[in-house]
Amino acid sequence: MKVAFFSARPFEQTFFEHANANRHHELVLLEAGLNLKTAPLANGFPAVCAFVNDQIDREVLEHLAEGGTRLVALRCAGFNNVDVEAAESLKITVARVPAYSPHSVAEHTVALILALNRKLHRSFSRVRDQNFSLDGLLGFDLNAKTVGIVGTGKIGAVLARIMRGFGCRVLGSDPIENSECVALGMEYVDSATLARESDIISLHCPLTPATHHIISASFIQAAKSGVMLINTSRGALIDTSAVIGGLKSGRIGALGLDVYEEEADLFFRDLSGKIIQDDIFARLLTFPNVIVTAHQAFFTQEALGEIANVTLQNVSDFEAGAVRPENLVTSRLIKASS
User: Catalytic one among 12, 261, 263, 306?
Assistant: First the structure.
């Protein structure tokens, strides 16, 4: 099948070429992201492959449908950038990679926790400047601390297992309890209790209307003073302006982000020679207790291999007549996530 591959990055090419070796799809790699302006590039392609920051709203989908596209193959787990109801009305199938490597994201979360706690980013810079002072680098033992995990699916469960290994008490917040997490000793609590009792809060839930800006000014005010906040899920789970207020007041003691609400204009490109126009993001970078990575949590060999394999299998399955139900994105799935 002929596939228009939007937002193509060099690091993906080897993995998709390997996954396509026995499938023989025609992949046309396009550096441009998918949006209303670039949608005509997909004319004549029965399938498009899209990434997390591609714009797949009703107008884009209408253009795709007019051009003959019948499949949107997401090479990611998230689908908040897709108007799924519009896709269904236009008879466009949307498929995703629901679980490429929960370990990659959970382990990156732990990397952020450790780096922020032990001030590794600051220590690294100091030593390179031959400054061997320890002033301002004091951390704390993770043992016996309370970690609150918002969203206890596959990634949340892996993180819970790791943090239990550190000797942490683990709290969970999710409409559906995960029996694996319960077996690990997780205590399910409401969001207010999680905010009040957690020393570290990590977000691992999907972005839906119900979870948009769940980290709000009121949530931050209710949280334990000095809480560490980590987000490796979706940027819009956090009200960034409120978080900046929490950093300034000290209510948030440390912040680790791998995602950002307006990241589409920033991440996955080299802007080192340009002035960042996003004042809120630029403000975040001024805090010494903030670490931002550029949507890197998924970026392991194992995850990229699985993403390529499942994405192209979805294309093959669609071509054969049916995508596996667990990989389909439907309005029913969105309601279940909400």
Answer: 263
For residues 190 and 192, give the distance between their C-alpha atoms in angstroms, rounded to a whole number: 6
pLDDT tens, position by position, 138-156 = 999 999 999 999 999 999 9
User: Which structural domains are found in the chain, ordered by start?
Assistant: 2-100+301-337 (3.40.50.720), 102-292 (3.40.50.720)
- Is 263 one of the annotated active-site residues of the chain? yes
Helices and strands per DSSP (H, E), number in the chain: 13, 12
**295 included as an active-site residue:** yes
What letter represents residue 194's amino acid?
L
- Single out the catalytic residue among 63, 204, 234, 251: 234
The pLDDT tens digits of the residues spanning 255-274 come to 999 999 999 999 999 999 99
* Catalytic annotation present for 234: yes
- Catalytic entry in 108, 251, 295, 306: 295
- Distance (Å, rounded) from C-alpha 160 to C-alpha 154? 10
How far apart are alpha carbons 160 and 155 in whole angstroms? 9
Three-point CA angle 297, 300, 302, nearest 5°: 130
pLDDT of residue 337: 60
Q: Measured between alpha carbons, how far is 37 from 58 in angstroms, rounded to an integer?
A: 13
Residue 67 has pLDDT above 70, yes or no: yes
Dmax over Cα atoms in the chain, in whole Å?
64
